[in-house]
Design goal:
Layout lengths: L10 E2 L4 E6 L2 E6 L1 H7 L2 E5 L6 E2 L4 E7 L3 E5 L4 E6 L2 H4 L3 H4 L8 E5 L11 H16 L1
Antiparallel strand pairs: 1-2, 2-3, 3-9, 4-6, 5-8, 6-7, 8-9
């Protein structure tokens, strides 16, 4: 497996989004694995502030020089903020996906939904399994 970065403070989805939670506010982005797989991000479409999203809802898109990919919400809630810097600098998703390259924030509707996501170890195992399927 390639050397991807992970964080024990984040929860991950099988669609490669991550979320951190502070005081019931979730910050969402895509994983290092996802940004690496997509290639150079050239455009980011994010959910509208104030919109309601449900777990696994398609809520935006990322376009790279290689492909376009849908963005899914890891949990249910109300979008409170978008990372507007990405409008001018979408490449931050590639260069700093866990910090400056975050995508949106939301007020979490049901904090128990976090327990359904993957922790760092589970996500690493998922990627290894995914890469092995691709090789076959």
């Amino acid at each position: 497996m390639k050397a991807y970065s992970f964080s024990a403070t984040r929860y991950y989805t099988k669609k490669h989004e991550w979320i951190t939670v502070v005081n019931n506010i979730g910050t969402v982005g895509i994983s290092d694995y996802a940004q690496n797989t997509l290639g150079d991000i050239v455009f980011v479409q994010l959910p509208e502030v104030g919109s309601e999203v449900n777990t696994s809802d398609e809520c935006g898109a990322l376009e790279s020089v290689k492909a376009a990919s849908e963005l899914y919400s890891p949990v249910s809630g109300t979008v409170t903020e978008n990372n507007t810097i990405l409008e001018e600098k979408p490449e931050l998703v590639n260069t700093d996906c866990y910090n400056q390259g975050w995508l949106f924030k939301l007020t979490i509707k049901d904090p128990k939904e976090i327990n359904l996501l993957l922790n760092e170890v589970e996500y690493k195992e998922f990627i290894i399994s995914d890469e092995e399927k691709i090789k076959k």
